[in-house]
Design goal:
The chain contains no helices and 6 strands. It is mostly beta strands. Strands 1-2-3-6-5-4 form a 6-stranded antiparallel β-barrel. It is globular. The model has no long low-confidence stretch (mean pLDDT about 90).
């Protein structure tokens, strides 16, 4: 499989806090794991709420947070619960910069 990403991804698991609105419009906040991180995005695992492609979520790491758009969502069928790929909005600063 050919890698299509233009940006290096770091294979690290970091604890983050995510918040937003789920598919029913209810607000939520929870902890999740961000992995395969870059300056523009990450893979979030452990999400307990159902989300849709295009939804916006806040992702917070060490008191820095930014808005991200959900690119895809899947049920991991494992202990990682729901997974979602997220992409940072252009005008936001990456919360895990420097990792």
């Amino acid at each position: 499989m050919v890698e299509r990403r233009k940006e290096f991804r770091k294979l690290a698991d970091i604890a983050v806090r995510i918040s937003g609105r789920d598919v029913s419009g209810e607000p939520f906040a929870q902890r999740a794991i961000a992995s395969s991180i870059s300056g523009r995005g990450a893979l979030l695992s452990g999400m307990e709420r159902q989300m849709r492609i295009g939804d916006l979520v806040w992702v917070e790491y060490e008191e820095r947070k930014a808005r991200f758009r959900i690119v895809w969502v899947r049920d991991s069928e494992s202990g990682r619960k729901t997974q979602a790929a997220v992409h940072k909005l252009e005008n936001e600063e990456c919360p895990w910069i420097g990792l």
